[in-house]
From TrEMBL, chain A:
Biological processes annotated in GO: D-alanine transmembrane transport; L-alanine transport; L-isoleucine import across plasma membrane
Major localization class: membrane
An annotated Gene Ontology molecular function: L-valine transmembrane transporter activity
InterPro entries: ABC_transp_permease, BCAA_transport_permease
Keyword annotations from UniProtKB, A to Z: Amino-acid transport, Cell inner membrane, Cell membrane, Membrane, Transmembrane, Transmembrane helix, Transport
Spans through the membrane: 20-41, 48-68, 80-104, 116-136, 142-159, 171-192, 220-240, 269-291, 347-366
Protein name per Swiss-Prot or TrEMBL: Branched-chain amino acid ABC transporter permease
Gene Ontology cellular component list: plasma membrane
Family statement: Belongs to the binding-protein-dependent transport system permease family. LivHM subfamily.
Subcellular location: Cell membrane
Membrane topology: Multi-pass membrane protein
Amino acid sequence: MRDWLIYRTFWDLTVSGVALGLIYALVALGYTMVYGVLRLINFAHSEIFMVGTFGVLISLTQVFGINLFEDGEYPYRSGIVLVLILLGSTVAAMVVSGAGAVVLERTAYRPLRGAGDTFGAVVLAFLTGLIASFLFTDSMMTNLMIAAVITGPLAVVYVRIFRKGRQAPRLAFLISAIGASMAMAEAVATWGPDERVVYKTPRVLEKKVLFNFFGADVRIDYVIVAFGAILMMTALLLFVNRTRLGRGIRAVAQDAETARILGVNVNSVILVTFLLGGAMAGGAAMMFTLVYDQTRFNIGFLLGVKSFTAAVLGGIGNIKGALLGGIVLGLAENYGSSIFGGQWKDVIAFIVLLVVLMFRPTGILGESLGKARV
Amino acid sequence: MSEVLLSVDAVTMQFGGVTALDNVSLHINKGEILGLIGPNGAGKTTCFNVITGVYAPTKGFVSFDNKSLLGLKRYQITKRGIARTFQNIRLFPDMSAVENVMVGIDAHSKTSVVGAVLGIPRSKREERESRERAHELLKFIGIDEYAEVAARNLPYGHQRRLEIARALGTNPQLLCLDEPAAGFNPAEKQELNELILKIRAQGYTVLLIEHDMNVVMKISDRIAVLDFGKKIAEGLPEEMRNNPDVIAAYLGVPDDAA
């Protein structure tokens, strides 16, 4: 007999389900906002989350110089040092993810929109040269030099291909997204020091139980996740509703063409949207490593698909929907895995996606980023 | 002789085999209201779209303030000082009236993206100034009491007025109105006429595309008439009223007239 939903487990499941759901929600924001302004599912967003977790790993081990274990114990820190480390790693993750999202938009998407931008062409030319050079030699220095030489002439060709006003068909964006996603994950897998294995992140936070909630233990990391996620989402909503750029984002989401005619610089609005979505994914990445103490090159894949599910569940393009969808999905997964067994966890998440797409494709709260209002 | 603000020189616009505009020349002087009229399908909106940069003309030139507009993007044309409204209302439906106007004002704000993200003091001041200016425009247009109402919930007539306020928010020299009286009853048309005259009194130049002869005749300083993509007449409203070509274009020439 499996342990059925007994009273105590129910609240345990609720607490961890909400924490997991909030992480989904933060990642879902990136899908939702980009969909709002571009009507594009940015499938590479999961890898933006992934590089964020590596941002945390690198900041903890390299910048703060913390080892996985100190004398066989976890490297717990406390007081102001702990706060600084947590904040520092959050900022690192947000910067890495945000920068990753900006580069992604300018190399994988903007050239396809016919914006006549040279940045993407140069980066793509460099990457093409780099990858082609691996056919001949494995020495990284040589590869980089070959790539640097090839970049110039190849960029000229790419600039011609991605010339101004040459809009690619919708499908090209999706293929570009999937390609960028695979390229980022495989680059980390290939060039990371431990390649495809799981990387443990140093556990600096001692996961003490803070208080009891209907008999369920509420650990400090869950509390940090909850506060952090709510704080970030509030900041995002305020930004979107109260600032000039936020207004630009909503205007583009509601009618990009009219916004452009009124003088809104649509490309910079799109860039800011990617930046914000990336920063949210970075915050989620920090919280994920805080709870699970590990990352991997393909950590983004499953989490990305589930966050996408959360975005669709709440109503894609809808900021509050992402929050609702994330929490509903996190809870459904936890309750479901208690009823059917842990191995069914992912199955449940995807059944939720299927059911939503069949019966309410616009999600619980309906589509639209433009409607975002406090 | 007053100064020419916008001039359209021998513009031809072809779509495949269809000639929508055939060698049309127009000019608008500073501070005047030019009415552009013609029957349905005469090329009024095409002419409008060429001026506002939606289409690049097949032949001919468009210049504004003595500088060519050809090859400019639409938002660059807006920045040069040409604002437009749309025949079918294109407000941001889920934004409040004041925010709709602010979107147009924002585009001319000086703060960089980085500054706005960091919320530096200047961007806060600009935010406040932009809101104040938006309220001013709403007051001018007469719908300030609806400032916080979502555009989709405004009455139809107010939506049309809001489009005008939003266009004025981009701080234009030339305001292009595409059938602003569409769907209005006579009383509303009268109010609109007064509003357009008030706008002109503020120093804006107005290009008015209108199907309704009564609106155009009453307030335009000059009128240009298009028919089948050709300009068939241009002059003062009274002259147009009695011009046989114009009457023929609007009423149709009986077959036995020839």
